[in-house]
Amino acid sequence: MKYDNVLVFGPTGGVGSAAALYAHSLGAKVWLAMRDTDKAISGLTPEQEQNSPGAFMRVQADLLDATSVANAVRQSGAKAVFTYASRDASAMQLAAKAMKDAGLEYVVLLSSSSLQRVGDLRAVERTDFIPFIHAQAELAMEDAGLALTAVRPGYFASNPVNNELDRSQSPARVRLFRARENLFDPVDPEDIGRVCGSVLVTRPSQGQKELVYVQGPEIMSNNDIWKTIVEVTGENIDIQHVDKENYVQSMATKMPMPLAQYLAGLQEQDGERYDLALLAQTRGNVKKYTGREPAVFADYVARHKDDFKSLKK
Ligand SMILES: NC(=O)c1ccc[n+]([C@@H]2O[C@H](COP(=O)([O-])OP(=O)(O)OC[C@H]3O[C@@H](n4cnc5c(N)ncnc54)[C@H](OP(=O)(O)O)[C@@H]3O)[C@@H](O)[C@H]2O)c1
Known about the structure:
The chain is an alpha/beta fold. The chain folds into 2 domains: about 5-155 and about 190-215, Rossmann fold (3-Layer(aba) Sandwich); about 160-185 and about 220-270 and about 295-310, UDP-galactose 4-epimerase, domain 1, CATH 3.90.25. About 40% of the residues lie in helices and about 15% in strands. The strands form 3 sheets. A 7-stranded parallel β-sheet has the order 3-2-1-4-5-6-10, with helices on both faces. Strands 7-8-12 form a 3-stranded mixed β-sheet. The protein has a two-stranded antiparallel ribbon with strand order 9-11. β2, α2 and β3 (about 55-60) form a beta-alpha-beta unit. This is NmrA-like domain-containing protein. Pfam families: NmrA.
């Protein structure tokens, strides 16, 4: 183990909680940097926290407030941190500088495989929302002089429920656009988090920058994703195939309109999403860094069945 005292931003998140728990399982002391230190953390009960004195320490910090970031680094004495990418690029620069000035040396950043084909990170246009946010976050760490492992995951297995499912209807409803043409690699956020926790503690490369891609084990059409959800959950979900405009309207109930429009635009790009040669090289990364096979999508759905239930009785 290279780092036995680490700081994790966003431990209430799907990826952040798994990163914190995995770093702990490898023997590191884990500081939990939270906007609200009273919040529950999935997979970590208050009893577990109390019964393992000194193993987990909560510290208040907000990535949008560089002073709080510096305080958290100083208070923890950690040299290694896991962090999400903030949507606010200038706040990310300030946070990275604050980390470096407070004595941090190494960052594991949750980035995105949307940067797979990008050569020059500085050339990514602001209108390419998702690549832009993650390019700016990677650059912030590099420019601050921090050693960086950028973990670049593919399509989260949690996206169908988070982005597409309208649970306020009974039956719950989903609107799909070009669902047969669009291919995804659903990857379990917990697998991503465990990879992050592993590289946080071990720092596999001593170089200034390392990329770790994390992909799901299957390539599935969006249609097959929803067929699997219905089969595994047994839920009656009203699946409608709609045109782009209706799809955007439906996504915009879950996210800002420009992001909904951007994601709908991506769905129109046939066969562009995956670099299959790179996928073949990096498919083994979950096993390589965690020792376990990545979750197949049906198993992910089975563990999250309740997330697909309509909220209306
Ligand atoms: N969806 C995809 O397919 C995909 C693909 C590639 C990469 N990604 C990346 O993965 C991220 C989503 O990961 P996830 O599902 O684990 O997210 P999540 O469950 O929504 O968790 C986000 C975490 O970040 C924390 N957070 C938010 N703003 C913060 C701030 N200003 N300061 C400190 N902490 C803050 C949240 O804390 P609170 O409890 O305070 O809210 C929460 O713990 C995306 O934002 C993107 O960067 C996603």
